[in-house]
Records
---
Amino acid sequence: MHQQDAAMENSKLHCGLLEAQIESLYSESVKLKFDTETAQEQFEEQMIKYNAYYAKIKAYKDSLGETESKCSFMTELYEKRELIKNLKTMKEDLREDLQNPQGRCATQIQEDISKLTNKIMTVKDSIIEKTYFIEEEKKTHERLRKEIEVQHKRNDAILKRLHCQVNKIQLNRRKWQWNIQQLEKTAAELKKRLGVKEAQEIQNRPIASWERIL
């Protein structure tokens, strides 16, 4: 009887330890679920911000012919989002397996949870890195936009100055043409007067003796 009581006590103690271990694993699983959902919400918020930014930057990129480089980047972000969904599904499968008495041993489950946690941290780090890249891209395109605006203003100023120069040249050309016309009229008048004077001199000149013979 004493041995049976001791065996029962050992069994109860062993069961208590197993229950405590299961409760600890279940708590970790719940925490992991919460962390995963938090990561998902943060990712979705970043995706909302990114999509709003991408909609604006795409129109700008179209004018610069750089939309192709953004396509691969968007695909990579969608792949990251799909990866988080898959990880969440894996977490649910692990939780169900943990609640199943005939599931895999606790050590294997703990290893899987640890691997899953590491993957989630990697995805979070990737999201942070991509978010930083987006912000840097936004700053770069804002700087380019300002430089383009400044260049447009410079070009407008140059164009206005060229228009003024062309107008001035055209005005001077019309003045020169008018002066040339006046000079031509004056020259024609002088030639006409010179021709009349020469004719009068010929008429008033005395006839030579040889001309009389002829």
---
Amino acid sequence: MNHSTLTLREYNGIQIPQRPDGYINATKMCQAGGKQWSNFIRLQSANAYVEALEIDLQMCRSKIILTVQGRGDTVEQGTWVHPDLGIEVARWISPEFAILTNRWTQEIISGRSPLPVQKPIAALPSSEERLRTIRFGMDLLQDLGGIDDRTRLALQDLTRNILLEDRLKQPALPSGERFEWNISDRAAHLGYRPKSGDLTKIGKIAAQLYRTRHGKNPPKHEQYVGGTTRMVNFYSSNDLDILDEEIGAVMGRA
């Protein structure tokens, strides 16, 4: 994103970036109001509002709530929300902030064209490409002196998981977007290298938020971890806001 296209708002001394299409950084909004986005999005009323927006705007949840995990770019980092949801977040913070946010939104959308479609998440390379990469890496390590047991086990897990993907039978999306993510794959996609303890922390909170939203546990699929088969939680593209928010929160503290 070009920073020159962002409008920097300010509330309680905190700068809150807003895009030309009206999307606003909800993470910064909550920070300015002394609150946390994760507390807002776990509210039943907040999820009901998002569901109503999905119907009214004919947009999926992952387009209404966008999470940007930056790599040193603090302006773009955080959760961005559709302007209609931004006003609802502001109302949750305070009536005064709601009035101010509504004014900001009216200013920025005055005379503009309809909201553009957000770019989909890049699809992973094909299974064949990833297996070729693993083979190349193994050959290279052998040439450099061999593969230790820990690395061999990790490569075995990765290979088995790639071969198991067909068993998940995930429906293909027209955009090429990946339909389901587990925590470790999503964290790696966002540029993080979480340890086992980090994954446990993220998993507990993300599962709790999922149960609050859907009234049931996240779906589980088979995956190889540490040389053994385990059932791990998976999250659909509509729930990436839950996953990305908690990954960012935990890894930001790591």
---
Amino acid sequence: MIVLKPEDVEARRGRDHVAEIATAEEWPVDLDDVRVVTAELINNAIGHADTDQIRVEAYSDQDESEGLYVVEVWDADGMNRPRQQCLSLEGEHGRGLHLVAALAHAWGVQVGRDSQTNDNDSGKIVFARWLVKRK
């Protein structure tokens, strides 16, 4: 896990951290997709969450038949949930979660969980998942 400040320059650090984990663990998913999804989730927290820190975690859970590969981004603002916005040609924002939905197999939000302790708190975890079936 890496702890980031809610500042624009931190998104790259978080993205690179997750890419290192995915590479070291040899995730069988497109590394560029993982990088884009991670950056979008972090940038969403930076731009919209009322928080003094952002925690980013990446992990996998595998068995003989499939592997689950997960990126989680925690912030302290459980009241402000991310939602996909309607797309428009003129809009400058609102495309990030559409990218996440297109590149990951699933994404979602868990409100009221601390990413370190799994205890109840006022924050949220926004996650993206890739499920890979083994032959």
---
Amino acid sequence: MEEQYGGAGTSPHVTLAMIEELSEMGFGASHPAMVFTTTSSHPTSAVTAPRAESLLVARMAKGEVVGALAMTEPGAGSDVQGIRTNAVRDGDEWVLNGSKIFITNGIHADLVIVAAITDAGKGAKGTSLFLVDAHSAGFEKSKKIDKIGQHTSDTALLFFNDVRLPATALLGEENRGFVIMMEELRENDSASPLRRSLPLKALWISRCNMFRSAKLSDRKSGNFRIPASNWQTLKRISPSIGRSTSSAREYANGTLTADTAAMLKLASCEMQCRVADQCLQLFGGYGYTAEYPISRFYVDARIQTIYGGSSEIMRELVARSMLGR
């Protein structure tokens, strides 16, 4: 975030370095911070009016306000074309109706960026973004969704029942919400912050899992008496991680495009699931118990191929880029 709004004014690489360190403690620690820094405070500072910036973005930088991004809907998933939440202009206000699901930080959020249809005839091109005060009349938060992993990261179902918003709540231009999220927020002609940070988290967690497994395996008796560094399983994991880190270096050099970012997200997150599965296998039955941290990392890894653009959506984007369609 820019210094003029109270941020450090550093590059995205600094943010990702912080997220990497938090990821070593688990996804539940790093994911809320990642969502806040890359998908709520960043778009707010990028497209809001000066007055709104001074009131909202500065408070985000101070930690006084928690932000969330609400795009996913029941029955729509990652498909922006399937969004049903709508906002209708009523004089100097907008009236928002609909619901969102699986919203990270949804329970604790003070401000939520909501994607809503403002022109139903245009599909995704009729989508707009709105900055919604979570304390507004008609805004309802469900109880925290009970997940199988990432328990420290709250996930919510949100409802909007005739929520009245001032005209200034519109982020950017009307009907350009999809463009803002997918294009205007690219940094250095790269991909969206969220789609860049998820793969790097996957790479970092995979490396941590491998080293953690080797360390613990060396200490245990019985089946763990053989050094893990000599095991064929671990030998298969190491080259895979090594190849993937070259993609991370490509990001660090600022050379990722939207197409290669989709490839990186797909490859890295699916690799993370494979690595977590193989590392758990090293521990036998012990790996399936809550006593060993690998079981938590195994469960947390599974969501990586779903949120931030599912593997199916990433494959579609990659295919389009290769086939020119």
